[in-house]
Amino acid sequence: MYTLDDYDYHLPEALIAQTPAADRDGSRLLHLNRVSGAVSHRHFHEIVNLLRPSDVLVVNNTRVVPGRLHGRKSTGGKAELLILDYGETDGHEPNDCKRVYRCLIKASKQAGAGTRIYFDQGLVGEVRDFSEGIYTVAFSAPEPFDGLLHRIGRMPLPPYIKRDETQPDEADRMRYQTVYAREQGAIAAPTAGLHFTDAVLSQIGEKGVTVTPVTLHVGYGTFVPVRVDDIRDHRMHDEWYAISRETARIVSQAKAKGRRVVAVGTTSVRTLEFATGPDGAIQPGRGRCDLFIYPGYTFKSVDAVITNFHLPRSTLLMLVSAFAGRETMLRAYAEAVKANYRFFSYGDAMLIE
Are residues 192 and 270 in the same domain? Predict the structure, then answer.
């Protein structure tokens, strides 16, 4: 269970969702009992019936930033840039016109220090340095940076979602964002949360379920493939997280009373497990989470998980395999393929309990 090939599975390309379901809560939901391995097929709006009144539902309220920019270098060559740490730098004011961020740059030739890149509406970026595949870029805008970026930037969709770059992305700006997104900073959506609607959340609340947020800004590392044969040698990327005192109190009290903690998405799972202290209580605070969960891990806080279907050989598949058991999970994935579920970010969902 520690070999990378142990987390491979066959997925027809046609099952990789390119667009979201017509309605957020109209996506399909595979219900997996991790003890018996039993699978049932439902629709996401039925999650209301599957949750218990005493449950605590933990969501990740990070907000995806339209930090993908297309421009031209001073030499005339095209350059595509992706801001990596928008939500991690303190001290910025909304009216700031200058910012410095770590970025990825795709161009025909590597952009050296001093290279200037020109974007729409007067935004200019200047490369300061380059290290281990990451550029440091100083931006200068003719107006407050935040407003300009949200006008001219594009949503950083995963590479397996194909889009014509000449077309507007208004639909993705709405649908590649949870309805409860609040804290700016992610470069990818916590996709398990994309299925929730305000109506579903209202019904969950009326049932008695407590909904509480954490923040984990999903980073580029979520798309970086595992490149080692023995997964125990993999170095997990780190991501910025925050847990409020109120959320820590709610989750800690729930655990002490034997109530279930249901995590929405692998990001919420990692955040909660990372912040659980030796006494089993959730520790409030903020910092960087680099927890790598794979089979053999003992879960301390999470009792059930709502998640999407993940890429073969990915750390996310390893995490849910740790929660449900590798063989149980791969059987469930095979069943999902057979039943033509839609996979990955804009795909269908799974409840594991």
Answer: yes
What pLDDT is recorded for position 172? Answer: 95
Same domain, 41 and 99: no
End-to-end CA distance of the chain: 21
Span 250-273, pLDDT tens digits? 999 999 999 999 999 999 999 999
Sign of torsion over alpha carbons 220, 222, 227, 233:
positive
C-beta neighbour count of 102 within 10 angstroms: 17
- Planar angle of CA 214, 216, 219, nearest 5 degrees: 165
Examine the domain organization and report whether 224 and 203 are in the same domain.
Answer: yes
Distance CA 145, CA 353 (A): 44
Same domain assignment for residues 328 and 190? yes
Name residues of the chain where pLDDT drops below 50. Answer: none
Residues 338 and 294: their CA atoms lie apart, in Å, by: 26
Helices vs. strands in the chain: H and E counts, helices first: 8, 17
CA-only gyration radius of the chain, Å: 21
What's the pLDDT at 40?
Answer: 98
pLDDT of 89: 59
33 vs 171: CA distance, rounded Å? 35
- Beta carbons within 10 angstroms of residue 62's beta carbon: 32
Give the global pTM: 0.95
